[in-house]
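Reviewer 2 asked us to include a model.

Predict the structure of this chain.
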Amino acid sequence: MGPSPAIQRLSSDPLRHVVTLKMLSLFGPHVQLELFENGAGWATKAIFPAAVSGYDRRWYPTADFIVLVDGNSPDCMVRILDDLPRSELLLKISNRAAAQHATDLLGGQLQRTFISFTAARAGEVAPHDVMHGCELHDEMTLSFIDAGYGRDELDTCFRRGGRWFAKAKGVRPSSACFVYENFGKVWEIAGVFTQPDSRRQGLARRVVAAATRHLLENNLQPRYQVDAKNVASIGLARSLEFEEVLRVEHVRVPAIGRAT
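Predicted model (structure tokens):
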């Protein structure tokens, strides 16, 4: 049996729909996936318990369910928001109109906005003095944990082919990032950090450039996601000529006042 119509729609442009595809890959048995179509327009709604996602438990501890709304039509994305559970929800919506619907009609409140970038070329020759590897030593692990990643998450990423890139003083990374598979050929550049005493030297730009070059040389599509309030990370992306491809809004919707 082939993929469902909903998976086929999402897989037609994996970079734009990678948030939903990634969650289906990670938490498939826990995810309820629906498809709404109207002519050429379509939207999907993926619902899963917040408890199964370490990231969502950390950032949204009171949410009962995570709802991912995706598609190519703002109208369809608004329509598919009907019939939501009467529980506290965290909606992740890749369309401004649908997110506005959630805030206006469902009593939702915008929490965060994330911007996804990609790159068709490395932008410059990646520096040869950037180290890289596929096994995490303790100093590197602790640095990525400080950047917001759990130990279990890191273990999963590196078991599936993840690789780190770093500038270092001895075993201590001055600046580093890592790459891991999101879905298929879409790979994330993640965990970017620079030690306080090594900032303003362009080190983060160098490790991200090296990571980008590695992905492109291996016929993989880079994805670099940043919080819309992180001016420094957005500046880094633009300095490497990354292209913005997606914005995803996180909207908290309270349980009170909504029908089952």
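Residues 203-217 form the longest helix (15 residues). The chain has nine helices and eleven strands. We have added this to the supplementary material.
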